[in-house]
């Protein structure tokens, strides 16, 4: 389920809930926009974009896995910060919020630091 792709379906006795990959990507984008040390998102070619509310899904892809959903994120981190700590904080927060807001299991959140720059 790459961005713009299919839905994740969750079934229960009461019925079915279908959540699009774009909705999950938007949740991840909101978390990134609020995360310490993240100054922007990076696209597939490494072109950075500032965090604008209309671009929350930029640099984020969501796909299905046997264990749940996988969120791939390409980010720009503020210069002078520990890149591993910023990425770990983002990874943990995205997994928590996606699970909390959708009820879906998150198999992995992969964070790629594409650029470092002063904010």
Instruction: Supply the CATH class.
Output: Alpha Beta
Strand content: 35-45%
Number of domains: 1
Distance between the termini: 33 Å
Count, helices: 2
In round numbers, the mean pLDDT is: 86
The ordered string of helix (H) and strand (E) elements is: EEHEEEEHE
- Considering the protein shown, what is the CATH homologous superfamily? Cation efflux protein, cytoplasmic domain
Radius of gyration, Cα only, in angstroms?
14 Å
CATH architecture assignment name: 2-Layer Sandwich
Low-confidence stretches: none
Structural class: alpha+beta
Q: Into which percent range does the helicity of residues fall? A: 25-40%
Number of separate strands: 7
Biggest pleated sheet = 5 strands, mixed
> What name does CATH use for the topology?
Alpha-Beta Plaits
Shape: elongated
Describe the structure.
- There is one protein chain.
- With 119 residues, the chain is an alpha+beta fold.
- The chain has one domain (7-117): Cation efflux protein, cytoplasmic domain (Alpha-Beta Plaits).
- Helices cover 28% and strands 41% of the residues.
- It has 2 helices and 7 strands, in the order E-E-H-E-E-E-E-H-E.
- Strands 3, 4, 5, 6 and 7 form a 5-stranded mixed β-sheet that branches. A two-stranded antiparallel sheet has the order 1-2.
- Strand 3 and strand 4 form a beta hairpin.
- It is elongated and about 50 Å long.
- The chain starts with 6 loop residues before the first strand and ends with a strand.
- The mean pLDDT is 86.
